[in-house]
Amino acid sequence: MLEVEGLAKSFDGFTAVADVDLVVEPGAIHAVIGPNGAGKTTLFNLVTGVLAPTAGRLRFEGQDITGWRPDRITTRGVARTFQNIRLFRGMTAVENVMVGAHCRTSGGFLTAVARVPGRMGRGERETIRRADELLELVGVTDKRDAPAADLTLVEQRRLEIARALATGPHLLLLDEPAAGMTLAEIKDVNRLILRIRERGVTVLLTEHHMSLVMQVSDRITVLNYGRKIAEGRPEAVRRDPEVLAAYLGAEA
Predict the structure, then answer these.
(1) Tell me, what DSSP letter sits at residue 181?
(2) In sequence order, what are the beta bridge partners of 223?
(3) Which of 1, 38, 109, 111 has CB 3.0 to 4.6 Å from 223, enough for a Cys bridge?
């Protein structure tokens, strides 16, 4: 589904990502791990068009998307969440999800804003129905009409996933989806990621909680100072001496 070939990104002489090759298979949950500064978020920013690569190519479902704008990549079928949550805090939960659906509908949220009061088109009704379905999937239905700013951290992370799913992605990138969560909440995220895969969405994940990574991932890529040092199935990565020393430590 996603092919990353020789990808590199430098900032004023500092190399954040260096000659990274990566293949994400359709239907997989593929994790990218590494310590802070390993280049994980930079890699995500390159894949989603937030940053342009210094070198290398990106292909999504066989199409070269290198250098595409983020909105074009989203419309093509790639969505993401952010480690630092980026919701429309003054909008309600359902409105945030409706905004995500805008790239897939001729109606949607923007049409809803401009419509004549008391009249609702078929497209708007479908957008609302879809938003409610996604809120139920991520478990924040009870906060449907609450401003995003009033949601807890866990609820906000779930809402951001719902908004990303509203774009109708084939590939979903999750950047630290369990950050700041308790063990019980991390288990809920584990189940949610599996449900997302069951819906036919391929997942590329970066996460510091190794218990989540090892349980949910089909394949793991390990970065160190922007370079790939290991890749394979969880059990193989878990045994890799360099990975054990650099990333997993006692948690392995």
Answers:
(1) -
(2) 228
(3) 38
**Rounded CA gap, 54 and 48, in Å?**
15
Token pair listed for 11: 């900032």
For 18-43, how does the pLDDT look when each residue is reduced to its tens digit (9 = 90+)? Answer: 999 999 999 999 999 998 889 999 99
pTM of the full structure: 0.89
Distance between alpha carbon 13 and the CA centroid of its chain, in Å? 28
Tens of pLDDT along 54-101? 999 999 999 999 999 999 999 999 999 998 888 999 999 999 999 998
Structure tokens at 150: 């009033």
Cα 168 to Cα 101: distance, rounded to the nearest angstrom:
8
* Interatomic CA distance for residues 206 and 51, integer angstroms: 18
Q: Which residues contact 139 (CB under 8 A, 6 or more apart)?
A: 158, 188, 192
